[in-house]
Amino acid sequence: MQTRDHLGRHVVAVTGIGLVTPLGFGVAASWAGLLAGHSGIRRITRFPTEHLRTTIAGQVDLPGEQAERPWTAPERVERMAALAAEEAIAGAGIGGDAAFPGPLFLGMPPVEVEWPHRLDLARHCAGEVTYPAMIAAATGRLALFESCLFGGVGERLADRFGTRGAPISLTTACATGASAIQLGVEAIQRGETAAALCIGAEGSVQPEALIRFSLLSALSTRNEDPTKASRPFEKTREGFVMSEGAAALVLESLEGARARGATVLGLVLGCGERADSFHRTRSNPDGGAIIGAMRAAIEDAGLEPGQIDYVNAHGTGTPENDKMETLGMRAVFGDAAPPISSNKSMIGHTLSAAGAIEAVFSLLTIRDQVLPPTINHETPDPSIPLDVVPNVKRAAKVARVLSNSFGFGGQNVCLVLGAAP
C-alpha cells in the first residue's frame, strides 16, 4: 500500500490500543465480554441512590478507590486514561521509558467542583456551614484549585508519558473521543508530527451528572434488571445508561510505522465532522449534520458508501437518537445499508470516551472478522429497518468500518477505519 492517500496526505496507521470499560481492564477482557454479549451495567454503589429515578450505570471500580472517599471525575479520568495509555504504548513498542515522539490529544468531560469537594470544604468551615464560610475554607487550597483545572489532567498525563508539545484537552460532548482521534489524524496528515497519543476518557458516574441527565429524561429507568436496561434500536428503548471508561490509540504515519518495524493494527482512513447548532441536547430533525458527518468521513477516506462493510453505531438507546441515526443510515446508504450494531447495549454510554472506545472496537472487528452484537434486542422496531446484528455476534468479511459519534448540541464526528495493509 502507498504511504500517501488519495489527497497526497500521510496515511495514518494505528500501532497501539488500550481499553478500560465496565467489561474489564485491557483490550482482551473488554473485547471478549463484548463478543460474548455480556453486559457491564449494574447498580451504582459509589454513592447513595435513594430517591433517584435511575440507580444503574456502567460503573468502573478502580484499584485503590475507597468507598468512604470516592474519587472525583477528573481523578477517575486521569487514572483510566493512564491505564489505557500504558497498554497502548506498550503494544505499540514506542515511547516507554523514553519520551513519546508526538503530542497528546485528550478528550475528557468538563471539570467542576463535586460533592466530595464540597463535603471536604464543609468539614473545614469555621463555625456554621454557609456559602461565605465555604469560600473562606477554599481560599488558598492549591490542591482543590489544581484538581478543578480542565487542562490539569492532560498536563499530568503529558508529563507521565513524555509527550511532546503542549497537550491538547478538548470536549465535544458525546463526540469527544472521536474528536481527539481526528485531531491526531490531521496533525499526522499535515506532517506536523510522526505520531500522536489520542485518548478519550470518562469518569462522570457521579451524582451531579446522573441527576442532570435524569432531569433531561435521557436516562433509562429500567432499574429492576440493569443488564437489560440499554436497548439500542429496540422498540421498548427509553433512554441511555451512563457509563465510564477510557480508550487510547497510538497513531503514526504508515511510513514511520513501517520504518521502525511496528505492527500495524489498522488504518484511520477518513474523518468527518459536522455541527448543526440546533439545540442544547437535540439534533436537528432534518438530520443534516448527522448525514453530513457520515458522508464527509466516507468521502475523506476516498470511498463510496457501498465500500463500507459495517457501521459501529452511536446507538444510545434513546428514542430520538436511534431514530435520527436510522434516518442518517437510510440517507447515506439507501436500501443497501451494511450491518450496524451498538456496543452501548453492553457497556452503556461512555460519553466523552465513547468515540475512542468504539474506534478500538471497530479495529478489533476488522482484525477478527466478527461483528459484535446489539444485545437486548427483543422486540424489533418497525421504524428501524436495519440489520442491527441482534443479540449474537456474527462472522463477516469486514475491511472498512464507519464509526459514528453524535453528541449533545449537534456535535458529530465520524471515523472510517480500515484493515492493516
From TrEMBL:
PROSITE patterns named in the record: KS3_2
UniProtKB keywords: Acyltransferase, Membrane, Transferase, Transmembrane, Transmembrane helix
Pathway: Lipid metabolism; fatty acid biosynthesis
Keyword Magnesium included in the entry's annotation: no
Protein's UniProt name: Beta-ketoacyl-ACP synthase
GO molecular function: 3-oxoacyl-[acyl-carrier-protein] synthase activity
Family annotation (SMART domains): PKS_KS (SM00825)
Leading EC class: transferase
Chain segments annotated as transmembrane: 12-36
All residue ranges annotated as the Ketosynthase family 3 (KS3) domain in the record: 9-419
Short name of one Pfam family: Ketoacyl-synt_C
EC annotation from Swiss-Prot or TrEMBL: 2.3.1.179
Family: Belongs to the thiolase-like superfamily. Beta-ketoacyl-ACP synthases family.
